[in-house]
Amino acid sequence: MCGRFVVARATGELTAELDIDHEAPDLPGASYNVAPTTQIRLVVDTPEARRLESAKWGLVPGWAKDESVGVRAFNARSETAVSKPTFRAAVKQRRGVIPVDGYYEWHKRADGSKQPYYVHPSGGGSLLFAALYEWWKRPEPADDGSAWLLSATILTRQSATENLEWLHDRTPVFLDRGDVDEWLDPATTGDAALVDDFADRALAVSGGLELRPVDRRVGNVRENDEHLIDEVEVAE
Q: Quick check: is 2 catalytic?
């Protein structure tokens, strides 16, 4: 699963790296402790342009009566997303990418305690999560006057690479940069075969990730500084 991640790169770098044509004016800034229900950066393709948008982390389907549904939908299992009412419409035509620097995962130790680790690409650059997104019409406009809410979820898969499966039994579905265009293509109708294919491709990206133990402060969403990703010593 993925419950916290880091976004420290400037939006200009992402624009160049991912061939983005348009940046939303309200993009969230850098954060070393991004948590569910907060605003995140989301890449989407439309017939006109590739856009970097600001979205709420936690998918709210179009049929929802209120946006609280998103609290329980910040991750979507790749094995069942096609059949789940919350996600199945998004699988078909609203697939996105969430670019991050890395993410945190908690490892349950033999004594029952949990130790957080920071997982990130070994060569630097962005780590790309396969995502689903939806537009939800608010019953009443938000404080900023917007009538629509854009929200997203991260696809996850059962972990199957030695470097990560000891840490947690699930990981995000990682995307290789060369697969982004295909995943985002709005002309492709997504189905179970498509999701399974990209979940399998994620294994190649998994092998190039590194991880290090970090301070338990990351468990407190109010903690947010660059030292959260510094390596710490872990007692045996």
A: yes
Catalytic, 105? Answer yes
Would strands 75-77 and 148-158 be described as parallel, antiparallel, or unpaired?
Answer: parallel
Contacts of 229 (CB under 8 A, 6+ apart): 6, 32, 102, 118, 120, 214
Select which of 2, 13, 48, 236 is catalytic. 2
Distance CA 91, CA 101 (A): 25
Asked whether 96 and 42 are in contact (CB, 8 A), the reply is yes
Return d(Cα 115, Cα 4) in angstroms, integer.
14
Whole-number Å distance between alpha carbons of 154 and 97: 9
> Could you tell me the pTM of the whole model?
0.96
Which residue in 13, 105, 165, 231 is the catalytic one? 105
124: phi > 0 → left, psi -120 to 50 → alpha, else beta; which?
Answer: left
Q: CB neighbours of 228 closer than 8 A, spacing ≥ 6?
A: 6, 32, 33, 118, 214, 215, 217, 218
Closest by CA to 90, choosing from 205, 183, 206, 167, is: 183
Q: What is the DSSP letter of 109?
A: P
Alpha-carbon dihedral sign for residues 94, 15, 53, 34: positive
Q: How confident is the model at residue 236 (pLDDT cuts 50, 70, 90)?
A: low
Is the pLDDT score of 1 beyond 80?
A: no
3-state secondary structure (DSSP) of residue 156: strand
